[in-house]
Amino acid sequence: MYQKNPEPEYFRDGTIKKQTEYIQLDLEELMQRMQPGETVEIRDAYIGKDKKLLARVILYRLTDVQVQKRRKDLAYKEKKKGVTYSEKSKRLMGINVYITNIAWEIVPKERIHDLYSLRWQVEIVFKTWKSFFQIDRCKEVKRERLECHLYRQLIAILICSTTLFQMREILLRKKHIELIEYKAFRIIQTYFPLFHQAIQQQNTQAYAKILLRLFHLLGKNGRKSHRYKKKTVFDILGVVYEYTTKVA
């Protein structure tokens, strides 16, 4: 990340010397100036090695509690997964850096982190498709068989998603319960054999009983907690509902 050099050097013909046009930002120095929990924005920042692009850079310095948790996670990765981090990376773990081209008039710096949190919902969708439905795995087969496989998986995803969204809306509206999408997907998928059996038998009463049982199971085992005052998706989107937290 760079900023324009206020005092660049020039050649005799008045052409600016490229290597002096920008000054690289020192993230460690910027982090040391900030207080824990503080958010700072650098609007006139540039990114890119060869071609510099103007962007907004938002820096957030983690609190002491957040830093301790990140250090714990980093130590686990180094020990269990064999990942080695440089000393500079370890020093910079106390700061979050967000880069965006969204105008500050549209999204203030205080809301950038929330938007990045929402972005992960897209990643969760892809994760469920790959983990539970193996949409990314297929053997070398004929085109017709591949199309049948994809259609079957997409139909299963459609049934699962429709069931999830309907039950999530009802649980939120009637019981003020927010579901964990990833876990709820897994629970609903385990009911597919029962769905298939009820549909084959054309037994609407049995199908309704299965849905009711699934509804209660999701409300019991698929609910999202509000631990550590961490915002959920509905909190970020401004969905108002009451929730309770258990006190140990």
Jot down its keywords.
2 domains; alpha+beta; disordered C terminus; 248 residues
Notes on the structure:
Residues 62-158 form the Transposase IS4-like domain. InterPro entries: RNaseH-like_sf, Transposase_11. One of its GO terms (molecular function) is transposase activity. This is Transposase. The chain is α+β, with helices and mostly antiparallel strands. It folds into two domains: 2-107, no CATH class; 118-237, no CATH class. Helices cover 52% and strands 12% of the residues. The protein is built from nine helices and five strands. The chain has helices at 27-33, 64-80, 87-91, 109-133, 143-175, 181-190, 192-200, 204-221, 233-237, and strands spanning 2-4, 22-24, 39-47, 53-61, 95-100. Strands 2-1-3-4-5 form a five-stranded antiparallel β-sheet, with helices on one face. A hairpin with a 5-residue loop joins strand 3 and strand 4 (53-61). Helix 4 runs parallel beside helix 6 (181-190) and helix 5 (143-175) crosses helix 6 (181-190). The longest helix has 33 residues, at 143-175. Mean pLDDT is 85; it is low at 243-248.
